[in-house]
Amino acid sequence: MDNRIGTTWRGGIFVVDPAGSVFRRLCTASLSMPLWQATGGVGQMETIGPDLAIVAAYGAPVWSVVTDIASRVRAMILATRPTDDEAARALVAGAVGYVDANLPLETLRRAIHGTLQGEIAYPRRVLAAVFSVESGRASYSAKARALTPRQRQVVGLIVHGATDKQIARELGIATTTAQKHVANLLHRLEVPNRAAAAGIFASSRSLGMG
């Protein structure tokens, strides 16, 4: 484990990058928060309690690691050789973003800060493709049509990156009520997280980085 910012920090961004190239690039991105590099496993992530975990992918990611991390903390992938197929798999795995690691530093910084604020970072074409297929007996589009008017309002705000507090403010309700609406929405759509819920509506929204 290597913390390039300071040994007394907790939180910040946990970067799974044994090779170190992506981590070094992030160190130059002026993210204004601590960066922690994991050169081995992710065992110390729970101790640090990061706000975001970034998995550096120089080829295909280790999907079991991505899924494990995404189940515990907001997670995104920075890929040096990105593909739409891997981006789609990242979305299904629960990652909040899949971004080309070679993008300009300002674009990377915006994407990372956006995910920290509840947004998602995926190419629009990938979001549309992932959720245009059927899942089991009911298609995602059918599930979307079954949403209540309030749930439609909530998912519309999620698509635009709104946090629970922003949803509450926009709808004139308490934050705890907004959180319940989001939880009910995810249950109704049978998806694991906000990123997946937003993806269902990507084909009719201007969202993402593609």
Q: Main beta sheet, described?
A: 6 strands, mixed
Question: Low-confidence parts, pLDDT < 50 over ≥5 residues?
Answer: 1-9, 133-138, 202-210
Q: What distance separates the N and C termini? A: 33 Å
Helix content: 40-55%
Strand segment count: 8
**SS class:** alpha/beta
Outline the structure in words.
The protein has 210 residues and is of the alpha/beta class. It is globular. The strands form 2 sheets. Strands 1-3-2-4-5-6 form a 6-stranded mixed β-sheet, with helices on both faces. The chain has a two-stranded antiparallel sheet with strand order 7-8. It is 45% helix and 14% strand. The model is unreliable at 1-9, 133-138 and 202-210 (pLDDT under 50).
Secondary structure blueprint with pairings:
Elements: E1 2-3, E2 13-16, H1 21-27, E3 35-38, H2 45-48, E4 52-57, H3 63-70, E5 75-79, H4 84-93, E6 97-100, H5 105-116, H6 124-130, E7 134-135, E8 138-139, H7 140-145, H8 149-159, H9 164-171, H10 175-189, H11 194-200
Parallel strand pairs: 2-3, 2-4, 4-5, 5-6
Antiparallel strand pairs: 1-3, 7-8
Helix pairs in contact: 4-6, 8-10, 8-11, 9-10
